[in-house]
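Quick one:
INPUT:
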């Protein structure tokens, strides 16, 4: 078993940032205020991961299903994304964070999608932390997209259909080339994945907390990492086998 504390830090953490609406509703505030508060928690989580030496952080900010929310809430979220891009990218860049937006960006207004592309371009050489922000993302969309892109490559004669295996598939899915997701966290108390990463969390450790996203701070993340460090990741083996192979 691993004894080195550093080796028990997850290389890649994925978070379903849930509970903004309830955080606001409990205070009799509009849900949009909860989303605004949630941005402070995003800042804290990025800083936390940088400090702890996590290599990649993937945040679920807007699902492909969230378009079905009331127009006012969707509009408020789009405004928040715009403002956040204007306000935060400079500092993230100064801190060496590489930003990537994952999801179908074509659905966003040009004003927003062009800022997303610009942020990705500006920070692409950074290496302190990879920050993946999932927007208009769905795990099934991701899988269907990878399948389509492989099929197109096969039709063009670039790959043989027989060559499609797990490793090639992974290269066509979102987060290709990044460390595997070690720790999947969902805040807000719901025990579901809600069409976030599906392919990528095959062997992630799952951690659920009742904390609402705007209340998430270093203590909540410390608790998640402490629990992760206690888990035995067996990947199908037995505990005895793991003791032998270390
Ligand atoms: C998560 O918080 C943020 C988004 C889905 C955009 P919610 O808005 O889902 O908050 P709850 O679950 O209603 O409290
Ligand atoms: C998942 O939260 C999406 C994000 C956090 C962006 P939801 O609030 O949309 O999930 P459900 O509706 O509870 O499954
Ligand atoms: Mg929710």
């Amino acid at each position: 078993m691993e004894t080195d504390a550093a080796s028990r830090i997850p290389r890649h953490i994925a978070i379903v940032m849930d509970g903004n609406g309830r955080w606001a509703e409990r205070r009799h505030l509009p849900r949009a205020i909860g989303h605004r508060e949630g941005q402070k928690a995003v800042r804290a989580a990025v800083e936390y991961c940088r400090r702890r030496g996590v290599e990649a952080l993937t945040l679920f900010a807007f699902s492909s299903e969230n378009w079905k929310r009331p127009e006012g809430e969707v509009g408020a979220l789009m405004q928040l994304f715009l403002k956040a891009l204007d306000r935060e990218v400079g500092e993230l860049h100064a801190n060496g964070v590489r930003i990537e937006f994952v999801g179908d960006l074509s659905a966003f207004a040009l004003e927003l999608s062009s800022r997303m592309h610009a942020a990705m371009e500006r920070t692409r050489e950074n290496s302190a932390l990879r920050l993946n922000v999932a927007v208009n993302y769905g795990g099934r969309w991701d899988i269907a997209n990878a399948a389509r892109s492989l099929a197109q490559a096969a039709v063009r004669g670039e790959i043989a259909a027989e060559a499609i295996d797990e490793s090639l598939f992974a290269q066509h899915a979102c987060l290709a080339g990044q460390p595997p997701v070690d720790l999947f966290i969902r805040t807000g108390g719901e025990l579901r994945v809600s069409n976030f990463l599906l392919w990528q969390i095959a062997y992630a450790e799952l951690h659920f907390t009742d904390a609402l996203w705007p209340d998430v701070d270093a203590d909540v993340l410390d608790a998640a990492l402490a629990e992760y460090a206690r888990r035995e990741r067996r990947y199908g083996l037995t505990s005895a086998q793991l003791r032998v192979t270390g």
